[in-house]
Amino acid sequence: MKSGGFLAPVRGLLWRFSAAAVRPLAFVRRLSSRRPVVVGAAIAIVVAIVGSTIAVADISASSPSPTPIPTADATGTPTPTPTLTLTPGSSLGPTSSSSPAPSTSPGASIAPEGMVAATTDGVWLPASEAALATRKPIAVMIDDHWLARPQSGLSMANIVYQGPAEGGIPRYMAIFQTEAPPSIGPIRSARLYFVAWAEEYRAGFAHMWGAPNAMGRLAKDTGKYIYNIDGLRYGGMSGYMWRTSFRVAPHNLYTSYAKLETLTSKLGGTAPLATSPFTFEDALPGSARLEGGQVVVPYAQNDVVYNYDWKTNTYPRTVSKEGPQIDAATGLRIAPSNVVLMFMNVGLLAATPAELHKHRLDVQYTGHGSAMVFNNGQAIKAIWTKNSEYAPTLLTYASGPNKGQSVPMVRGQIFIQVVPTYVPATWTTGYAAAPEIGTQGN
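^ that's the sequence the OP posted. Answer follows.
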């Protein structure tokens, strides 16, 4: 792949992306590494293109398969979305020969004296802030329509999911634990797969209504795995959410962490998040990291580009025509420490004519499939596994001596990209070992 060029055709579709130059503007907390690693002087560029074909089949054996409904990409070219049979527990991509065991506590390294690790992203916090390290997470559905950009609060989230939704427009779910943004939004509606991921954190879940299957799941849960904060009930006069005047509806619904925390507590969400589905490690020293490297995820309505920044050991984010992604609430560049691609089967949800008419998507989020983890300038081939609806999604090494073991996250923000298998994501790794920079960027 050549930066700034056109992506190769996949299944007869022309995908475009613009890989704008990235300026390292983000500030990210980092502490010293727990172990030195010697990296060779040169590493071959690795380019991986994921463009596997999805089988087209009936959702229900009792009804005929509907004609695929086209969705328009950013250039107006029709993009067919397949109708797909998704069987819970079925596999996708490479499989692991062993059953990985979840990590029950963050911190693959020994905690510095007087410090504790956050259970969401592993960042070290002073012991005096130990309550923040296990604070009840709050998840918020955030709009990614072009009229909603730039969004507010993403730079302060510990974990962010971005996945597909109707019309080729992706959607965010930001999870907050250790920081409290004064402005979060714009808030949009829920989808079942996002609800399932929020349940893994026993989170408060803020949204504005949602797809019928998502709303049914939330109504059934009643606080066991998730705490339902619906804007239809808690917006307006309740004061927990508000409409702004500088944007048009539906792209103008906002909230704050303080209001969501208060409401989550009232709904019974007070238990801390004591364990994590991830393991964590400290950042490698500058001498053990590579320069360069890029990750590109070309959603139909948002080309997402990460250009690895060696000095800060982060992945500054660029989106579509907006360029460098800046948090409207903080003015900071969105620059996670970890980028995860989880490749999943995605098709039209054809359970009812109404769902098909709205182009609702079905995502195979249980079972297992291929994944890539990017941190410290490295690209790690992995497998994602979610054994049941309420089980955590685990990331394990796909091969090598650590096969089946948890892939550690670098302490810092985690950005999880849910990538349909028909989307041609591409990536390159760094081209040479970087010179020593002392403690900078560690």
